[in-house]
């Protein structure tokens, strides 16, 4: 499945409804710049290997390029192009003055030692020294990258430039100018959107069941927030499998995380004597988790999880896309026909880039905001974005995804026209 083709179908579908100027659409259909680098790495064993990395800069019409960095064996150029396009749209939906980019290295980081990973990250940063920059292009964490990886990039880039450059990346540790609240921002923003959806659909937490696919940074935190607010989290999974709560009562994601750390996986841990047991919990394959009867399904893993094949089997009322691109256009159509409300990634997971933007602002001003200030700044942005998308959904009688793209296209068109 070509994620970039999917992203283009989403863009073009919305552009027809919004009657976007053809020349503006043509600009947005192609990334402004694609950089591919081949980075040599000496493994701990002395063996030398070459890894391919990418940075795709989709649009800087509204501000410097901004987007995460993914380390995964499946990273390919079409995936990175799609993710970069979605970043442009996302920043426009939440109305922050940043553009869209994305990067990645085709590598399975779980097979590298920490020292190898650091050398690879630093070599990649050297290769990208003229591509990254606080006013040019600002990376952040994504799948399999974290605050530590960001600190290596910040340190390497600062050394190359002979001065401290904290604003070159976001998602850094607090000690290096990271923002309070960045680690949970994607989930915080997603949960704010979920609360808005719940208001519109009159869902009560206790009577609302939630299933989360992907138990990483974003998935774990949103499961935790939902549980704390009283929603029943009845299914969770990671790349090695999942569990469902047969009692339908809901489980505590913190207990599951403790067990995951102990056993290294979620699936099957129910039978190792834990939070889970064979009577109340059942192991479930990843694909099956998406078909579990629930009210809110939250994909928080990778792209192309809801497809033409399984969309018909989704039993949720709402799909809240915390992952980027989890639903293919074919699945979107099927879900719309089934009246499943799909809250698109470019709205639902935009809390991450919004707090990244706050981090960049703090670094440039030499300030450190309190956690309360971050939250107070995030909430109105997420709520306004939700309501602006919801309004367009009604006005154009369309899906939330198309409505979000329409909103983004309005803002991008204005910026592109103003520069011409
Ligand atoms: P992560 O690496 O912390 O977690 C990914 C999780 O998904 C892991 O638990 C992994 O085991 C699981 N997973 C992988 N394949 C799976 C499968 N087939 N079934 C079930 N689980 C599977 O990554 P993350 O940062 O949490 O990102 C997850 C998604 O959210 C990505 O699509 C990412 O682009 C998106 N996202 C993340 C952020 C952020 O701030 N972290 C922001 C916006 C969007």
Automatic annotation (TrEMBL):
PROSITE patterns: GLFV_DEHYDROGENASE (PS00074). GO terms for molecular function: glutamate dehydrogenase (NAD+) activity; nucleotide binding. The keyword Transferase does not apply. It comes from the Bacteria. The keyword Transmembrane helix does not apply. Coiled coil: none annotated. The record marks 142 as: Important for catalysis. Substrate binds at residues 66, 90, 356. InterPro entries: Aminoacid_DH-like_N_sf, Glu/Leu/Phe/Val/Trp_DH, Glu/Leu/Phe/Val/Trp_DH_C, Glu/Leu/Phe/Val/Trp_DH_dimer, Glu/Leu/Phe/Val_DH_AS, Glu_DH, NAD(P)-bd_dom_sf, NAD_bind_Glu_DH. SMART domains: ELFV_dehydrog. GO terms for biological process: L-glutamate catabolic process. Keywords: NAD, Nucleotide-binding, Oxidoreductase. Residues 179-420 form the Glutamate/phenylalanine/leucine/valine/L-tryptophan dehydrogenase C-terminal domain. Pfam families: ELFV_dehydrog (PF00208), ELFV_dehydrog_N (PF02812). Gene3D superfamilies: Leucine Dehydrogenase, chain A, domain 1, NAD(P)-binding Rossmann-like Domain. The active site is at 102 (proton donor). Signal peptide: none annotated. PANTHER family: GLUTAMATE DEHYDROGENASE (PTHR11606), GLUTAMATE DEHYDROGENASE 1, MITOCHONDRIAL (PTHR11606:SF13). Belongs to the Glu/Leu/Phe/Val dehydrogenases family. This is Glutamate dehydrogenase. It comes from Candidatus Uhrbacteria bacterium CG10_big_fil_rev_8_21_14_0_10_48_11. The lineage of its organism: Bacteria, Candidatus Uhriibacteriota.
């Amino acid at each position: 499945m070509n994620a970039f083709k999917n992203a283009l179908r989403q863009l073009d579908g919305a552009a027809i409804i919004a009657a976007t100027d053809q020349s503006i659409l043509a600009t947005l259909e192609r990334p402004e710049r694609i950089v591919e680098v081949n980075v040599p790495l000496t493994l701990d064993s002395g063996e030398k290997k070459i890894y391919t990395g990418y940075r795709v800069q989709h649009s800087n019409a509204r501000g410097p390029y901004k987007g995460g960095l993914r380390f995964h064996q499946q990273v390919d150029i079409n995936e990175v192009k799609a993710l970069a396009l979605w970043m442009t749209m996302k920043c426009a939906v939440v109305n922050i003055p940043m553009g869209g980019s994305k990067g990645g290295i085709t590598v399975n980081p779980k097979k590298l030692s920490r020292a190898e990973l650091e050398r690879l990250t630093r070599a990649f940063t050297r290769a990208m020294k003229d591509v990254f920059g606080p006013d040019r292009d600002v990376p952040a964490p994504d799948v399999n990258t974290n605050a530590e990886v960001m600190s290596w990039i910040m340190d390497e880039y600062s050394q190359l430039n002979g001065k401290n450059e904290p604003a070159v990346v976001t998602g850094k540790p607090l000690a290096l100018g990271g923002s309070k609240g960045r680690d949970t921002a994607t989930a915080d923003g997603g949960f704010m959107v979920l609360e808005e959806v719940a208001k519109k659909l009159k869902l009560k937490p206790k009577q609302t069941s939630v299933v989360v696919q992907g138990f990483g940074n974003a998935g774990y935190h949103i499961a935790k927030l939902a549980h704390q607010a009283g929603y029943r989290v009845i299914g969770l999974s990671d790349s090695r499998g999942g569990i469902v709560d047969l009692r339908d009562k809901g489980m505590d994601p913190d207990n599951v995380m403790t067990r995951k750390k102990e056993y290294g996986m979620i699936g099957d841990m129910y039978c190792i004597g834990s939070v889970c047991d064979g009577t109340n919990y059942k192991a479930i394959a990843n694909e099956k988790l998406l078909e579990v009867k629930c009210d809110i399904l939250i994909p928080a893993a990778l792209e192309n999880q809801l497809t033409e094949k399984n969309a018909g089997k989704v039993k949720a009322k709402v799909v809240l896309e915390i992952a980027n691109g989890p639903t293919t256009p074919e699945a979107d159509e099927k879900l719309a026909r089934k009246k499943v409300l799909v809250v698109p990634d470019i709205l639902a997971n935009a809390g991450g880039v919004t707090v990244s933007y706050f981090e960049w602002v703090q670094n440039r001003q030499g300030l450190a905001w309190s956690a309360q200030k971050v939250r107070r700044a995030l909430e109105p942005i997420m709520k306004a974005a939700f309501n602006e998308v919801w309004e367009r959904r009604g006005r154009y009688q369309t899906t939330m995804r198309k409505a979000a793209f329409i909103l983004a296209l309005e803002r991008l068109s204005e910026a592109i026209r103003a520069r011409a």
